[in-house]
Amino acid sequence: MRSNKQFVIILAILLVALAISVPSYLIVPASKEDVLVSKLPMNIGDWQGKDLPVEEVAYQILETRNLILREYTRGQDTVYLYIVYSQDNRKVSHPPEVCFEGSGITIVKKEPIVLEVSGNKEVFANKLTVEKAGVTNLVVYWYKAGNYYIDNYLKQQLRIALSRLQLKHTSGALIRISAEVDASHPDKALEDIRVFARDVSAYFGQVIP
């Protein structure tokens, strides 16, 4: 019985790996994407945006230039938006934890969170408290696979892979919003992220469909 159970587990793992890897050979990523996330407006409601520089090595690792890194301000409020998107390359959506740890950023805490987005809808996301050089930031991120918002990287990859087994092109994206934590107002960072997520998500249907 035990050997049979182990066999079933191993078989399930192999099937998942197959579903994720095989479609990569069936569908070749487009050399030029039709949908550009850079078309996200600089002005979103009361928020004013400004592009931040992205290192060339980041483009090489992600295998796409279809991404944005922006600072959005509203009066004294500041949030940072990062979106990487591809119409047919599932590998662009790396978990943020991997990048943070490689950059010497300490992940203090990770927990689930529910955000309200445009249309009075809710999405499940991840909330990270991170620190570096004595500065604390709050990071909220989630994924998109086609029309679905997903809080888990493996679930996103599996959904895209299963879609590709049907020879369908399914887009993928990582959406990340962060804000610096003010020790005198520790709840403000999350409040700003919530407001901005609701405002910016109204444009997702256009820039990360």
How does this structure look, described?
This protein is an alpha+beta fold and 209 residues long. It has one domain (2-207). The protein has six helices and nine strands; from the N terminus they run H-E-E-H-E-E-H-E-E-E-E-H-E-H-H. It has helices at residues 2-26, 56-62, 96-102, 153-165, 188-200, 204-207; strands at 43-44, 47-51, 67-74, 77-86, 106-117, 121-132, 135-145, 148-150, 172-180. Strands 1, 2, 3, 4, 5, 6, 7, 8 and 9 form a nine-stranded antiparallel β-sheet that branches. A hairpin with a 2-residue loop joins strand 3 and strand 4. Helix 1 (2-26) packs across helix 4. The longest helix is centred in the N-terminal third of the chain and has 25 residues, at 2-26. It starts with a helix and ends with a helix.
Mean pLDDT: 86
Gyration radius over CA = 18 Å
Overall outline: globular
Uncertain ranges:
7-29
Query: How many structural domains are formed by the residues?
Result: 1
Distance linking N and C termini: 47 Å
List the helices and strands in order: HEEHEEHEEEEHEHH
Q: Count of helices? A: 6
Task: Outline the biggest β-sheet.
Answer: 9 strands, antiparallel
* Helix-and-strand structural type: alpha+beta
- The total beta strand count reads 9
Give the strand content: 25-35%
Report the helical percentage.
Answer: 25-40%
